[in-house]
Amino acid sequence: MASDEVVRKALEVIGEAISTEPEDFQDHETWKFLGLSGLLASATISDLRSQTGLDVKPEDFTKYPTVGAFKAYLKGGTTNGSSTQVNGTSSQTKTNRIPEPEDPWEGVPKPKVPLSVILQGDPTTSKHVVFLFPDGSGAGTAYGTLPVLGNSICLIGLNSPFLRQAQDFTCSIERMARLWYDELRRLQPKGKPYVIGGWSAGGYYAFEVAKLLTNAGEKIKQMILIDSPCRLFFEALPEGVVKELTKKGLMGAVGQKKAPEWLIAHFTSTVLSVDKYMPTPLPKEHVPPKVNFIWVKEGLVKSVKDSGLEVDMNVKVTRFLLEPRGDLKTEGWEQLLPGAKYDFDYMTGNHFQITQPFHVRTQPFS
């Protein structure tokens, strides 16, 4: 059993290895997310032994995969790798889930912003109602810069329940979908087929909400996936990339040098949740007949080498975000949405410029 002082020293050693201040560690963060794995983990174990006297082993970062679980282990607690709960899932494996509460709002603080915002039109009179889920920022109002889509269209942006309180965002992608479910049912005229979509992580939310709605007997007419890298093919964005983009003023910047702290905090919590998310396909009979893909063509930087970004370009999602692309297609989503009719559109700009008017053009809605 290690003393609090030894645990503090251990976190200092780990923090030095991954360039993170010990006070910035969050108990729900995983070592994988923080970039502590492989040879770096082995070297850190050696430093821990020599500098703290702790009898730790290389596999301990896997057995106790979160900061909180590892701290409890060092203190001699009963937490173990097979039972530690991480964002609603078992830390032993992403597919071995701990049952979630019947009430998805159990333990969730009251949202500080409305769950939805009507950006265009009127849901009671418009021919089409389009629900768009947020990217990692959590802000449905990001879609407020889109030009008018048409007189017959109502556009509704969904806000994260954890907007401006990201420290409480520790739940799974699937549970987030449950938090939005009643809001969609409230706004959509009964029996009317849904049109839902999302940008980046918002695509995952839309997909999981589609499961909930179709299981309840509702129909999804159309799904719109906006520069959303399929989780079957792409990793969660590494924490080191988030730090580098923030440092360089590239994270969510729209003509500003630095993104607001609440955005970075929510983005970080989203990435942690995405890291533990592994979707399963929609039953073919529930798949929307039409799936629209919108991809950007440009990377965040013209040259990663010249940008000064210190990132691992062996990670597919890092390349997806930073490098220019060809004409992407379904990119793995066909495994989750089998049998749909897929349409593809392409935009100028990069991943964080999706909703900027200069890059957006409208098309007739079908």
Automatic annotation (TrEMBL):
PROSITE patterns: CARRIER. Gene3D superfamilies: ACP-like, alpha/beta hydrolase. Residues 1-78 form the Carrier domain. Residues 80-110 are annotated as: Disordered. SUPFAM superfamilies: ACP-like, alpha/beta-Hydrolases. Residues 80-96 have a biased composition (Polar residues). This is Carrier domain-containing protein. It comes from Baudoinia panamericana (strain UAMH 10762).
